[in-house]
Amino acid sequence: METQPTVAVTAQGRRTRDTIVDAAAELMYVNGVSGTSVDKVLAASGAGKSQMYHYFKNKDQLVEAVIGRYLEKILGNQPAIRELASWPDFDRWAEQILTLHRGPSGPIACPLGNIAGELGDDPRVRALLDRAYLEWESHLVNGLNTLRDNGSLRPDADPARLAQAAMACLQGGLLLGHIRNDITPIEDSLRIAVGHLRSYAI
């Protein structure tokens, strides 16, 4: 059985663990997982090797934590996704994503997409990424279920399939937008995604 990561139980421990994960997340975003060694993470975080291996027994556990951190940041940049209760809320969610990518550093690559491109053939990493994407989609599913409950979504609509389709559109737009340094693929993908969802409106 694989050893589970050690949970930080003190405030200082949580800060140390968070510093390690944040440093690894930044390095892996820029250099990829294969280009990010444990020594580089230690240097960037200022943590000692004993601290690293106290919380993460191996690099795989660190990658898992980084995927979780990426998801936290993604959802934090689109807070409307947690409050989807009307069709205008879905428009607001799309606009929050566009606002991020219209910034001075945008369009930016999806960090989950980066790892998928590098390690998506690894069954363990693929499962971790799928779990992250499903959690992201789950907020869309919850919003669509709310719309169906209040009579704004067709009863025969499948919220999980609709959320999956919206995510597929968005991910394609994020990939092309970053590669081409052009916001229009993201704008178009979100317009298509939200338009598809709204086609099931009552």
TrEMBL record:
Residues within the DNA-binding region(s): 37-56
Alphabetic keyword roster: DNA-binding, Transcription, Transcription regulation
SUPFAM superfamilies, sorted: Homeodomain-like, Tetracyclin repressor-like, C-terminal domain
All copies of domain HTH tetR-type, residue ranges: 14-74
A GO term for molecular function: DNA binding
Protein name: DNA-binding transcriptional regulator, AcrR family
Lineage, broadest ranks: Bacteria, Bacillati, Actinomycetota, Actinomycetes, Pseudonocardiales
